[in-house]
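As promised in the previous annual report, we have extended the structural survey to additional targets. Below is the entry for Extracellular solute-binding protein.
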Amino acid sequence: MAISDETKTAAVSRRSLLKAGAGLAGAGLATRLSAFPTPAIGAEPVTLRYLSTATNQSPAIAEKAMEEAGVKIEYVTVTTDEVAKRIITQPNSFDLVDSEYFSLPNLVPSGNLMGMDAKKIKLADKITPVLTKGTIDGKDVGSQGSAPWKYFYLDGRHSKKFAEAPTEWMTLIPTTYNADSLGDRPDLIDGEVTHWSALLDPKFKGKAALINIPSIGIMDAAMAIESSGQFKYKDKGNMTKAEIDKTMEILTKAKKDGQFRAFWTDFNQSVNLMASGEVVIQSMWSPAVTAVRSKGIKCTYLALEEGYRGWASGFALPRTLRDKKLDAAYEFINWFLSGWAGAYLSRQGYYPAVLDTAKEKMEPYEWAYWYEGKPAEKPIKAPDGTVIEQPGAVRDGGSYETRMSRIACWNSVMDENEYLITKWNEFVAA
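The corresponding C-alpha cell record, generated without further manual editing, is:
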C-alpha cells in the first residue's frame, strides 16, 4: 500500500542505544505491556484523528484501543495521494498518520512531521531488524528502492534530514509491512504461475491488471520486464529517464495490444476484479487475497522465482501535536505494538513491527501457519472469523523468514519521480 508522490545505517546496536529508554528488562516485560492506564471514571477520552487510506483502518482495532488504552480513534479516510498532500499542506488536520517509509524523502523536508522519541516507545528495541537494519537471521535482504532502514532515523526531533546512524528520533513507528507479489485465480488459469513475466504474458491478454500508483506500478512492471528478458535495470527503485522511457515503451505496447483489463487504485477494486473473474492475474496486496478467499473463491498470492517487492508503513506524528494529544498518541502507539493489533493484522497476511507480542495473542496453530510455513492444523480464519483456509493448507510463499529474505526491491520514490509520474499518466491514457 502506498503513496504515488514519493544509507544502510552504521552498525550501532539498537539494543545498546535504546535499552535504557525502553526499559524492557527481563520478566517485567509482560507486566508493563499490559499496564495501560485506565481513564478516570467520567473522564472524556482523548480523540485522535487517524489519517490514512481505508486499507489501513479497522473499526475492530479502534474499538480495542478504546477498551484497553482509553484512546478514541477517529479515522480520516483519504486516498493514497491525499495522505501525502495532507501532511505537506494541512498538518493540523490530523493527530496521527499512517504513511509509508518510501514516502519519507518527500515528506520529511516539509518539516511537518516530528521525530518520535524512542525512549517513549516501550518496545522500540524489539522492532524487527528487517526494518531497522535490513537483515533477517543475520543476513542482508534486498536493498533496491527506498528500503526502510535508510529512512528510519532523524538527526533530531525537528530535523528535516535523515540520520546516517541510529538516533533516538524515529521517523515512523512501523505498523505493517509485507513482501508483495502478484495474485492469480488458479481455478481460471492453466498451469502454475512461477515468474513475474506472467503479468505481460499474451496468454493472459485482457485478463491482467496493474496497480495505478506510479511509484508501485512501475516496480511491478520492472519486475515483469526483467523477468521476461526484455530489459535489465541497474536499480529498479531508482530508474534513469532512459530506463523510465524504455519501461513505458514496453508497457504502452502491451496496453495497446489489449494486455490489461484494468488499472486499479483502490483495495476494493483489486478484490472485485479478482473475485468477479474479470482479471485472473494482477498486482495484489496480501489482505486483498485474504478478502477474495473469504468469499470462498480460490486466489493465490504468488511466490515468484524473482522474489518480492517489499513495503512498510508506520505511524507518524505532526510537528504541532502537543500536550494530552501527544501523550495519547504515544499511548496508542505503545498499545498498538503490545500484541492485539499485531495478531489481528497477521490474520490478514500482514506482518507487525514486533513479532513476540503478536505471537502471544495468537493461537499456536495460527502462528505456525502464518509465520512458520507449517500446514494448518485447524481451519484458518480471517480477522472477522471467516474461514479462509482448511486444515493442511500452507501459506503462500512459506515462512516469515523465507518470504522476507526473498525481497528483491522496495517501494520507492525515485530521483526522477516527477518525470515518472508524467510518463506514467501518458501510458495510462494511451
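Confidence is low (pLDDT under 50) at residues 1-35, 38-42. The chain is about 35% helix and 20% strand. These points will be discussed at the next consortium meeting with the crystallography subgroup.
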